[in-house]
């Protein structure tokens, strides 16, 4: 008769244990183990489940680890932070890229203020935050545009962003060609254009869309003046070695002074176009411009750019006038002098300043090293009158003679070139009209 410690299938059979053992203690233990663990179906089932669970857990861990490993081995990432120059280039490239599956776009709006004051708005549709899949030169790329929820760029109040490009390791060289393409596209948009930069916090940012270059010949200064400045700038640009060998800071300052509307600003724009340079405009009367920021900005001018300080006299006179009102402009005169002296870039630094009142300028600003080339840009001379007339009305030599004679007879010398331009624009297709209206130049405030 068999003695069991319970009923049913899972009960332990003591007799069987005894029978299967050889009588020694180890024999009994072995036999008991076999009976309890191996032959017991409940235990076996539980053990099996446990083993299965453990195996799956190990496998899962393995898969996670190996996928990370394979990810690292097979895929490559490229991260472009929003602070980097190529960030905007890339977004622009992406918005124009045809083989793009995502339709998730966001809009970027640019205002462009034209010379005549008109404003046009341009919308660019760029890929919005999120994931986008593209196929580039036969390779798939996952593009993830992420916005940091917490970090904010203090200079413009926008959240920091990054774009991460992921592709197969074997296609990694495509990143380079993609970025090159994006850069080329961006630079092509600027071809034949002048980019205006303005200060934005401590950095320079393009202001609006690049403007069409102003033709050098379209600004008519008195005989030889425009060419003299151009030659001086060109000579300076070619003399890098000369400066470095003598240990002289490689910079040159120009001051264009004269009455309003004589073409100072226009000339600098045309000069930048001629040299294929951009323009960084700094407004010294800006309230939140401090000496530190000024210094930083002057030492981080984008390459191939002319620094333009307009109406240099106004910034400091305004400061004195408004002192009693408790208002002080951020930048001090000595701050400007130090910033001008402290420009330490290896690249050349060309600074242009304009003013209507050179007499109000402190001699300290005018000393060589800060201003090396001063040019008086006056109201229209007879030479300019003739040249401007023929520029507006090509080949009208006879009417040009009549116009100049009448102009001379008026006996006035304070006609600005801007005034002349106004008269010619009014008589756009009518040179005779311009000759007939020459009298109106007597009154600078004539409104046509
Ligand atoms: N010498 C010139 N040749 C051609 N256009 C001129 C000339 N002078 C002025 N103009 C025209 O007159 C307008 C005003 O010129 P601009 O802004 O260059 O004058 P400015 O000397 O900078 O005046 P301000 O001292 O008031 O700043 C522009 O539209 C420009 O085209
Ligand atoms: Mg001006």
From TrEMBL:
GO biological process, one term: mitochondrial respiratory chain complex III assembly
Short name of one Pfam family: AAA_lid_BCS1
A single cellular component GO annotation: mitochondrial inner membrane
Domain AAA+ ATPase per the UniProt entry, residue ranges: 250-381
SUPFAM superfamilies: P-loop containing nucleoside triphosphate hydrolases (SSF52540)
Keywords of this entry: ATP-binding, Hydrolase, Membrane, Mitochondrion, Mitochondrion inner membrane, Nucleotide-binding, Transmembrane, Transmembrane helix
UniProt entry tagged with the keyword Transmembrane helix: yes
Chain ranges of the BCS1 N-terminal domain: 50-219
Family annotation (SMART domains): AAA, BCS1_N
Protein topology in the membrane: Single-pass membrane protein
Subcellular location: Mitochondrion inner membrane
Gene3D superfamilies cross-referenced by the UniProt entry: P-loop containing nucleotide triphosphate hydrolases (3.40.50.300)
InterPro entries linked to this entry: AAA+_ATPase (IPR003593), AAA_lid_BCS1 (IPR057495), ATPase_AAA_core (IPR003959), BCS1_N (IPR014851), Mitochondrial_chaperone_BCS1 (IPR050747), P-loop_NTPase (IPR027417)
Molecular function GO labels: ATP binding; ATP hydrolysis activity
Catalyzed reactions: ATP + H2O = ADP + phosphate + H(+)
Similarity section: Belongs to the AAA ATPase family. BCS1 subfamily.
UniProt name for this protein: Piso0_001559 protein
Native species: Pichia sorbitophila (strain ATCC MYA-4447 / BCRC 22081 / CBS 7064 / NBRC 10061 / NRRL Y-12695)
């Amino acid at each position: 008769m068999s003695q069991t410690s319970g009923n049913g299938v899972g009960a332990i059979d003591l007799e069987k244990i005894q029978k299967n053992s050889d009588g020694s203690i180890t024999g009994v233990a072995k036999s008991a183990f076999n009976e309890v663990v191996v032959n017991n179906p409940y235990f076996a089932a539980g053990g099996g489940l446990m083993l299965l669970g453990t195996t799956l857990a190990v496998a899962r861990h393995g898969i996670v680890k190996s996928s990370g490993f394979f990810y690292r081995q097979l895929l490559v990432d490229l991260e472009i932070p929003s602070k980097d120059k190529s960030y905007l280039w890339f977004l622009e490239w992406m918005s124009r890229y045809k083989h793009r599956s995502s339709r998730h776009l966001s809009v970027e709006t640019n205002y462009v203020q034209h010379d005549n004051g008109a404003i046009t708005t341009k919308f660019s549709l760029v890929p919005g935050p999120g994931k986008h899949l593209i196929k580039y030169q036969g390779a798939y790329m996952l593009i993830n545009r992420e916005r940091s929820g917490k970090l904010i760029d203090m200079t413009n109040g926008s959240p920091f962003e990054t774009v991460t490009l992921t592709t197969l390791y074997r296609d990694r060289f495509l990143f380079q060609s993609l970025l090159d393409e994006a850069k080329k596209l961006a630079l092509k948009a600027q071809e034949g254009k002048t980019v205006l930069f303005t200060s934005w916090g401590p950095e320079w940012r393009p202001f609006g869309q690049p403007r069409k270059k102003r033709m050098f010949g379209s600004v008519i200064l008195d005989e030889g003046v425009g060419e003299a400045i151009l030659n001086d700038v060109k000579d300076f640009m070619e003399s890098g070695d000369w400066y470095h060998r003598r240990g002289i800071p490689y910079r040159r300052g120009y001051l264009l002074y004269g009455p309003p509307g004589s073409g100072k600003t226009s000339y600098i724009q045309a000069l930048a176009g001629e040299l294929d340079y951009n323009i960084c405009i700094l407004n010294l009367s800006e309230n939140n411009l401090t000496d530190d920021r000024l210094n930083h900005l002057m030492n981080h001018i984008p390459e191939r750019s002319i620094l333009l300080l307009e109406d240099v006299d106004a910034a400091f006179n305004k400061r004195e006038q408004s002192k009693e009102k408790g208002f002080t402009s951020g930048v001090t005169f000595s701050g400007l002098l130090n910033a001008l002296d402290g420009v330490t870039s290896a690249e050349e630094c060309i600074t242009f300043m304009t003013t209507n009142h050179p007499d109000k300028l402190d001699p300290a600003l005018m000393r060589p090293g800060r201003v090396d080339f001063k040019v008086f840009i006056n109201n229209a001379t007879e030479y300019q009158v003739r040249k401007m007339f023929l520029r507006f009305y090509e080949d009208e030599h006879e009417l040009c003679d009549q116009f100049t004679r009448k102009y001379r007879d008026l006996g006035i010398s304070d006609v600005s070139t801007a005034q002349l331009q106004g008269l010619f624009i009014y008589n756009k297709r009518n040179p005779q009209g311009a000759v007939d209206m020459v009298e109106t130049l007597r009154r600078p405030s004539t409104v046509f």
